[in-house]
Amino acid sequence: MCTNIKLAWRNIWRNRRRTLITVASIFFGVLLSAYMTSMQEGSYSKMVDIVVKFYSGYMQVHHEDYWENKSINNSFDYDQALIDKLKSHPEVDFVIPRLESFGLASAEELTRGAAIFGIVPDVENQLTGIAAKIISGKYLQPTDDGVVIGDGLARFLKLQIKDTLVIITQGYHGVSSAGKFPVRGIIKHVSPELNKSIIYMELKTCQYFLGADNKLTSLVVNVDDNDVMTSTLKKLKKEIQSPYSVMSWEEMQPEIVQQIESDRAGGIIMKAILYIVIAFGILGTIMMMIAERRREFGVMISIGMQKKKLAAVLFIETLLIGLLGIASGIAVSLPLLFFQAQNPIPLTGETAKLMEDFGFEPYMFFSTAPEVFWQQAISIFIISVLIGIYPIISTLKIKAIKALHG
């Protein structure tokens, strides 16, 4: 076997130009494919981050009727035993209680619809990192009677720190709720949509304002990542029974999942076209190589070399060319994509505005997940193996006399 590999290695460098051109085509194919995959996966990761780390968490526990009818009337009592049961799972990092509602936020003659979040400041900050996103004023304190609002909402209502925000909404069981709250801080939320409507309020203050003492609309259950979530979700769905329900972020945000899957399918088509071009490039080189060396093969067979051994050498030559292209492509794409992951590309103009309208940051993000690289390596390797079948068949069909006179 070692002899065959040595022969194959020497053979591919007998015509350096042809080998280098073929390796270069594979190199650029791997590089472009890895770059495109990294860009896609980076965008998907950021989408999930926005949903998970800045709003929903990986899982939530609600009243079983809440998700179909997001009314404060479908809330449930704060239950420490339930929280302890959730925390008993080692995969669960923390559990965050929330009371959510909707209302009208006003300042003088200006009014806008707003999302009201009743939170426990210290616990909420573990997930969303709100305190670090305060651009003016300060974060909420325990028993605080003020609010933190989104920068977009503050600009629309022309509010500054220490100004008064008026909120009007419908509380628990239809009770009318209206109140005045001092603005403690202004936050630049990652999601532009939430930035225009978000109001954070200390949980006890929110419960009192809405007439929903000791009530919650959700418990946010956070874990490390999606893989951990999948296994933990199965356990929790078995343990948490009616009147509660457990939902993953994928169930709560199916449109995000559909968007990712449809975009990923489009990326697969683009990569398939790229791989076809690479495959024909390798195949063209191998066909040319066999045609040029047909006389050589005839001589080798005539002096006693077995066709099977010759076919094995040609097969190894094909694999070596493929592996050289894969190795060079991965070697260049690794540092490039690690740099890009640390330095996302900012978008400007209409593209940036369009992304902000859809609730995403105007940047082109990149991923360095292992699958970004090994998927390309495996794909090109499989293509090389399949193309390697051609020289095997061609060699086994060679007739020494015809080859010598070719």
What does this entry look like structurally?
The relative contact order is 0.17. The strands form three sheets. This protein has a six-stranded mixed beta barrel, surrounded by four helices. A two-stranded antiparallel ribbon has the order 2-10. Strands 13-14 form a two-stranded antiparallel ribbon. The chain has two domains: 2-51 and 256-404, no CATH class; 59-222, no CATH class. The longest helix has 41 residues, at 16-56. It is built from 15 helices and 14 strands. The chain is an alpha+beta fold. The chain has helices spanning 2-12, 16-56, 80-87, 121-128, 151-157, 192-195, 203-210, 226-239, 249-252, 254-292, 294-302, 307-342, 349-357, 370-396, 400-404, and strands at residues 59-63, 76-77, 94-107, 110-119, 134-137, 147-150, 164-170, 176-187, 198-202, 215-216, 218-222, 244-248, 345-346, 363-364.
Give the beta-strand count: 14
Radius of gyration: 31 Å
State the domain count: 2
Order of helices and strands: HHEEHEEHEEHEEHEHEEHEHHHHEHEHH
Instruction: Supply the helix-strand structural class.
Output: alpha+beta
Unreliable spans: none
* Overall geometric form: elongated
- Give the termini distance in whole angstroms: 30 Å
How many distinct helices? 15
Give a short account of the largest sheet: 6 strands, mixed, barrel
